[in-house]
């Protein structure tokens, strides 16, 4: 693929992810050591495009990566939307192909890809994402208050 096409593809993927300029440049620097696509080699640009493709940022808009429910034991579209929305709230991309979501799926539902989830697995995934989101909210609130869990537990111990 031509260099200009790769750069366009990377910019399009960043826009679809909703990244601002600083997030985009930090992401490039994390993966290549450079802060601009213009400074990257062709191989580095190709790897960046592959990374964006892996997280679903280069999928066609409107093309659903979410399987349709054809079996009564398959998750409903409402469950899929809820899981993907919760994954977004937890800091993931919100795509069914997100590597972080696939890792969580392997740990929680013992299935290597979310598209193979049944209703019970989907329920377990949504519950895990809700707990993760609650944990992040509590952790953020504690860091704002300037308190930590260990400080609270030390103050609650009897003397």
The SS-based structural class is: mainly alpha
The whole-number mean of residue pLDDT values reads 84
What characteristic shape results from the CA principal axes?
Answer: globular
Rg over CA atoms, rounded to whole Å, is 20 Å
Please mark out the parts with pLDDT under 50 across 5 or more consecutive residues, or reply none. Answer: 150-155
Q: For this entry, what is the oligomeric state of its chains?
A: single chain
In angstroms, what separates the terminal alpha carbons? 69 Å
What can you see in these coordinates?
With 159 residues, the protein is an all-alpha fold. It folds into two domains: 3-54, no CATH class; 77-148, no CATH class. 62% of the residues lie in helices and 0% in strands. The chain contains seven helices and no strands. It has helices at residues 3-17, 21-32, 42-54, 77-89, 99-108, 119-145, 149-156. Helix 4 packs parallel to helix 6. The radius of gyration is 20 Å and the shape is globular. It starts with a helix and ends with a helix. Mean pLDDT is 84; it is low at 150-155.
Which structural traits does this protein have?
single chain, 159 residues, 2 domains
Kindly summarize this structure in a few lines:
This protein has 159 residues and is an all-alpha fold.
